């Protein structure tokens, strides 16, 4: 007769696979997000790709949020600046306008953060098309320059990041702005520069080279017409010289071709709409798009 203890030992030896098979593990997602009260860090394979600020830092203007910084190259190199001494109002990658008007009268300046504040009221991170991940943010525009706060517009921004392709990183901004006021309009600076629209404060701008449609572009004081995309590179710069940045912008599906470029400590700008105001019809969406591609060189 087989003793009970011997029987149990015999069964364990006979069925080792059942006793030792590890539990299945869920594969880690390619993209993830760390959400805090100040903003969202989006990670690819555990490494930060960008941070999007959703609350103004202590001691800064109420409107100093709703922008992306830092923006990282795939090797971790930081490509943007925020609040530099030259122009402290400039901040990473952002849409903004020096003149926000109501009935033709300037009431706010989101470029220099005067008379306006933003409130991010909803944040969502999840999968997107083509293997991408999406950060969706819903916010309100509040005009603060008058005797009372005025609710001016709704904004919904989707920041979409795609998996690396041949070592290149692609990030898309997709923004809709819906006016809640009659007579709301947006305009650039009222001179030949006309700056306003999508701005990108790249680091070490004094070392930048510019190209569009395969040809070098020389920056000037005013805005200039070029192709529908602009390339930026830091030839010969340690770390930065390994990367190039491409930028393209659209408004209501129309590519933008005017650029304000600076080989100095300032932003690079897809100019929209220029000096003449763009009127936002109440309740109708204005659709803004910007695409940044970071490529190895």
UniProtKB/TrEMBL annotation:
Keywords carried by this UniProt record: Signal
Pfam families: DUF6807
InterPro entries on file: DUF6807 (IPR029475)
Signal peptide interval: 1-19
Protein name: DUF4861 domain-containing protein
